[in-house]
């Protein structure tokens, strides 16, 4: 297990997670992407939710079944899954939906298991406040890490600039 985590973090190419006839994919509603030992699901604002769709596909030529589904990790829950045991005909697939909500800023991970296959899920909860400044009467979002140009000003005189904080998320945030 340590090898898979190290290899995924080190950026080594790993084969798709499969065991015999069963293979796991990330599914976005249109495209299946084979999963390796680590699935980085990106980021979500603190308090907001994300849903991951994981597809279990029988890539073999005989029927196979899903006997167990497991998930262990803070912030993650299984929100939809097939009733077990679930028989997959050759070429057939079943979707499992994993929900995530981060309570605080940080990186979250979980161990997701189907039968004897394990994938480590990772998602980052970020601070969801946007900073904006008013330019010629229009509020413009300031990209993260950008410098705010206050313009030119004669030494000794005061200059003020109004900045706005915006919470695009669905829950209150403490600033």
Protein traits:
175 residues; four-stranded mixed beta sheet; 1 helix; single chain
Write structural notes for this entry.
- By secondary structure, this protein is mainly beta.
- The strands form four sheets. Strands 1, 2, 3, 5, 8 and 10 form a six-stranded antiparallel β-sheet that branches. A four-stranded mixed β-sheet has the order 4-12-11-7, covered by helices on one side. Strands 14-13-15 form a three-stranded antiparallel β-sheet, with no helix packed on it.
- 19% of the residues are buried.
- The N terminus is likely disordered.
Radius of gyration: 22 Å
Whole-number mean pLDDT: 82
Q: Which regions are unreliable across 5 or more consecutive residues at pLDDT < 50?
A: 1-19
Largest sheet: 6 strands, antiparallel
Structural class: mainly beta
Shape: elongated
The helix content, as a percent range, equals under 10%
Number of strands: 15
Distance between the termini: 39 Å
- Helix count equals 1
Helix/strand order:
HEEEEEEEEEEEEEEE
Quaternary? single chain
Classify the beta-strand content into a percent band: over 45%
In short:
The chain is mainly beta and 175 residues long.
List the helices and strands and how they pair.
Layout: H1 2-10, E1 18-19, E2 22-27, E3 32-34, E4 38-45, E5 49-58, E6 64-66, E7 69-72, E8 76-80, E9 86-88, E10 93-101, E11 106-114, E12 117-126, E13 130-135, E14 138-141, E15 163-166
Parallel strand pairs: 4-12
Antiparallel strand pairs: 1-2, 2-3, 2-5, 5-10, 6-9, 7-11, 8-10, 11-12, 13-14, 13-15
């Amino acid at each position: 297990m340590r090898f898979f985590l190290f290899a995924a973090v080190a950026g080594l190419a790993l084969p798709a997670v499969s065991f015999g006839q069963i293979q796991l994919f990330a599914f976005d509603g249109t495209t299946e992407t084979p999963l390796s030992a680590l699935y980085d699901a990106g980021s979500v604002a603190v308090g907001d939710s994300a849903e991951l769709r994981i597809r279990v596909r029988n890539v073999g030529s005989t029927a196979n079944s899903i006997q167990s589904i497991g998930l262990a990790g803070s912030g993650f829950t299984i929100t939809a899954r097939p009733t077990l045991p679930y028989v997959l005909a050759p070429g057939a697939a079943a979707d499992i939906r994993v929900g995530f909500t981060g309570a605080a800023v940080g990186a979250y991970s979980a161990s997701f298991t189907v039968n004897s296959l394990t994938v480590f899920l990772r998602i980052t909860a970020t601070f969801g406040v946007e900073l904006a400044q008013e330019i010629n009467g229009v509020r413009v979002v300031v990209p993260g890490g950008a410098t705010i140009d206050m313009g030119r000003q004669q030494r000794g005189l005061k200059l003020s600039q109004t900045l706005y904080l915006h919470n695009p998320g669905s829950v209150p945030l403490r600033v």
